Amino acid sequence: MAMQNIDIFKAVDFHDLLRSTKSLKAVALKAKSKYSLLYISDKEVTLGYRCVERMIQAAEETQAAMIYSDRYDDTQPHPVIDYQEGALRDDFDFGPLWLIRTDLLKSFFSNGNSCPRYRFSALYALRLYLSRHGSIFHLKEYLYSVTETDSRASGVKQFDYVDPKNREVQLENERICTEHLRSVGAFLPADEFDDLPAFLEENSDFPVEASVIIPVRNRVKTICDAIQSVLSQEADFDYNIIVVDNHSTDGTSEVIATFTNDGRVVHLIPERKDLGIGGCWDFAIRDAHCGRYAVQLDSDDLYSSTDVLERIVKAFQKQKAAMVIGSYRMVNFQLNTLPPGLIDHKEWTPDNGRNNALRINGLGAPRAFRTDLLRRIGFPNTSYGEDYALGLTISRHYRIGRIYDELYLCRRWEGNSDAALSVEQVNKNNLYKDSLRTMELRARRSLNATRNHPVDASEVTEFFHQQLESWPEIKERFSELDSVETKELSIGDSSLAVQFNPCRIVSTGAKIDKKTIKARQCFLCKENRPSEQISLPIEGKFQVLVNPFPILPQHLTIPMRHHLPQTFSSLRNVMNQIAWELEDTVVFYNGPRCGASAPDHAHLQAGGKGIIPIERDWKFYSSKMRKIWPATPLDESELQDHGYSATQAGIYLLREYACPGFVIVGEHVGENFLTNKLFDVLPIEAEMKEPDVNVLTWKEKGTPILEERLVSVVFLRRKHRPDCYYAEGESLFIVSPGSVDMGGLIITPRKEDFDRMTAKKACEILREVAATEKELERIAKHLQNTKLQRTERTSSHSNSSRTVDPQVSVGICSGNKIRFVLNAPYMAKGRNEEGLQVATCENGGIFWNGNLYSELTFTPIEEEASFTLRDVTIGVNFHWERQEAQTFRGKLRLLVHEDKIYVINELPVEDYLRSVISSEMSATSSLELLKAHAVVSRSWLFFQMQKRQKNGETNSNFFSFQRKNDEYIRWYDREDHTLFDVCADDHCQRYQGITREVAEAVSRAIDETHGLVLTSEDEICDARFSKCCGGISETFDTCWNDEDVTYLQAIRDSEDSTIPDLRIEENADKWIRQSPAAFCNTNDRQLLQQVLNSYDQETSDFYRWIICYTREELSTLVNKKTGENFGEILDLIPVERGASGRLKKLQIVGTNKSMIIGKELEIRRVLSESHLYSSAFVVDKDNSGNFTLTGAGWGHGVGMCQIGAAAMSEKGYKYTSILSHYYRNTKLKKIY
């Protein structure tokens, strides 16, 4: 339906009511006008007078991204509310009629080709996208009416989102909302909580440990039960009840008074008469009777057991939370469970709960709070949403604890205020909570803007001077640096230096054993810093502090805001960023066992240039370095592929310095390619997660020849402190080398050590704690060999002009938990790994070895290294589906996508083909058959890799369908792989790594056809193949989209080229019931063993086969597989066949409905629990309505018939003849 400037689309025209991105994308492709009007419901909608014209007018005048309006439900007015920035609820009521700008609808799919695929919530994702790119305007006019079919009360509907059957939908909604929060700058990461403050009040200031707060007005029927529910609590601490009686008039006050003899009951009646529920709560928590924790109980409700209070208090202590939320069950007044039963709010997860809280309308019950924090924040004086407002505010800063077990009974009865609300009241409530979400979203965005403030040199300088002016003692220490005693220690053409700095005895003399470190207060944590010390937030998770015991001018300490372990991996990005921006400073990192005092709080330091000798004299040392990577033209090519200059960037060995080290020159800020390259080969000591290193980084100013660039000097450590540190008498030197010392400025807090320090002694100390030249040379060789191994492997079976084999990425499997065994050493995250490994999908990342990663790469150290995956499913959705352990060579990558870990194997194409041919074919196969299959598999692979690249550029799909009321035609190509080139199962090509032994004949076939592919008109062919064509091969368009592929035509699989017209039903019936001669018509077991592996040989009747179903069996199967209600199946009627007799369309006739389905694979899928052997079959029925299917062939039948090709090779045909038989008018071409 179309009119001027608008296209109109109805959800009922799509099988999923426009819920999926696939359907919504179809709308975007069809939409041609300026605006698109979406009917997003299957309810009947009646447009009012000039409805569409009025919406277009509003869109033109407001330039809004979307227009929605008020409506009538039948004849009753149904106003809706204005959209706010915080209206993130996925159940926001826009009504079923949306007018949207078509250009934004199209850009939703084309914007960076990054639109994920959603099954249920594409419309939710779209409207959040629209809100980011324009306004969503509420036209306050009743423009249409809807026939309402949901008669449930509002108090029932509001819990749809916690119904378990909607769990999958909610998870998808959560992902969408989370990405939206990221896009608008309001996402809060899982580890970004403020440290929970110590209680401001002493224990004596809280009269009890916990207080239950019950605000009440006119609940004479329920208040007694509520109070008794609290008094029945059993706890090993004191507690009380504070009942805030908000001027009840129905006898509630008198009921409360009956409990006043119990000292635990505190009855408060406020003087004010303008308090809502929130105001009553605020009144209670500020009362002197209130305990350390304040726990909620509504006057209608009950605790479900006697240990509720005790469990809540323990949760505070164990989870280190500022607020604790439990779970509750919906019950009636007789305590019978009501739908949806237990409401545990498991959408609140530790990693994403506080982000997801902005999408949902409630947080759970009972709610409990730390009283001291409540008094700081305060309750809003409302009677709806007051707890939600507080929960959002607390979650912005602090951790909220959860108890997912039932603690609370929420009673619904006819007197409840929220059992059934009017449209107006629901709107009022939602409008208020949306306003809370808007406030919170903006507060979080502001918080992130402050935290993510980029480092700025002038701002840091201003901050530094501000700190000195406000902290006179520290200002004095920096002034003393100008007169601090230093002396030069000459070592040939360069020198070291020694500084006498008695203030550094605090760190240099500190104990560094684990027990001491654990026991002492961390001086970098906010709560332990001096009150005078201020901070400057930068780069998300970091703060700039002025170092109170300076060594260098403008000496800064840059810790992470939270106490996390000292690891270089968490600091390398920000280290390079700071060094680049603060170009007058040296930034340095001390490993956890490589500093003066070994603080375990992640941090960097920085100080002014020109003091540390390694940087001060860099012009001298840079001329003495030896480049170790890139070492070959291939290395240089790899470096350039990552955007680096091969002449100005690389990894070097530091020479003619006091101790050996590595130098990284030209690292790119934010990329770390060179850094990762080096750290991937550095050794890691037992029980450590990273190499022990000191790193100094600075920005080298540019010259007319060289661009400005980063320089990082990396000292690999073998000892924390030298022997002289622990010596006695004249041998004692209190020197504990950190990065500054390793850089040549030796810090001595004792005068006698300063006076006695010589160049020789300084060099001895540095060389003792640093790795030796021999160790660094070995590492350098390893760095070079990791690349040479693949080069040598390639050249071992190729001529000198051959280029390196292309690489292919293969998706092996996916799951929430991946178990695998590294059968030899692999490099991952800078350390060698071997043996059993377990990776789980948690918090949107990969949890492995105690850390969370976005992706993991395991690189083999030796050429023959392999890994084994447990429980790999093969034959997915086919009749031979099973699980087995499989072993692979090459690189192993783990990625997270849509809440699953995907396992990807990266390896050279030719190695991949060795496995494919070994998996598809038997070790006894003839050489000519193997060579033919090698060319076919290689051609298909490169065609799919090119197709994937094109689809990535055009955002097209690999499968599609056509649906009408009585017809459903769907075709399946290979899956739309976006994370890898191909999958490992039969949907692409069967790849099982080295699980199947590679026969000598297979390797020979691969080598003798190396780089050969089939081409047609100089384009690589889509070389399809199947097990058995059944005597005649099929055309491409029967199985997939309606495209005439010239080299995939019908071929008689015999020396007789005569082809009967099997599109005619009579001919097809005759052909299928007979068993005509064909290459693939064979029972020769020895020949079949060439093509069929062990489990394939379980299928013996592939050329002609028979399957029988009772009417009941067939009816159950078809109804289940289609999702339609056909009733009893009465008939299966061929409608259209392809050239091989395979059905392209089949009519299913049932007692309830009749429908035509297609194409080939859809027919096979519907008529079998897995997949029917083929769609080339005829149907017979007996008098009882039972069905017999007589069929021909195994698989789709397009392209090469594997069994036929095996027979041809046995008859003496060469592989070139086999290929030209099945793929007409093609040529062989060598592409590498």
Description:
The protein is α+β, with helices and mostly antiparallel strands. It is 30% helix and 25% strand. The chain has 37 helices and 54 strands. It is flat, with a radius of gyration of 37 Å. It starts with a strand and ends with a strand. The model is unreliable at 154-162, 787-803, 876-880 and 952-959 (pLDDT under 50).
Descriptive key words:
11-stranded mixed sheet, alpha+beta, 1232 residues, 10-stranded antiparallel sheet
Q: Name the beta content range.
A: 25-35%
Distance between the termini: 53 Å
Determine Rg (CA atoms, Å). Answer: 37 Å
Strand segment tally: 54
Share of residues in helices: 25-40%
Low-confidence stretches: 154-162, 787-803, 876-880, 952-959
Structural class: alpha+beta
**How would you sum up the global shape?**
flat
**Tally of DSSP helical segments:** 37
Mean pLDDT: 87
| Major pleated sheet | 11 strands, mixed
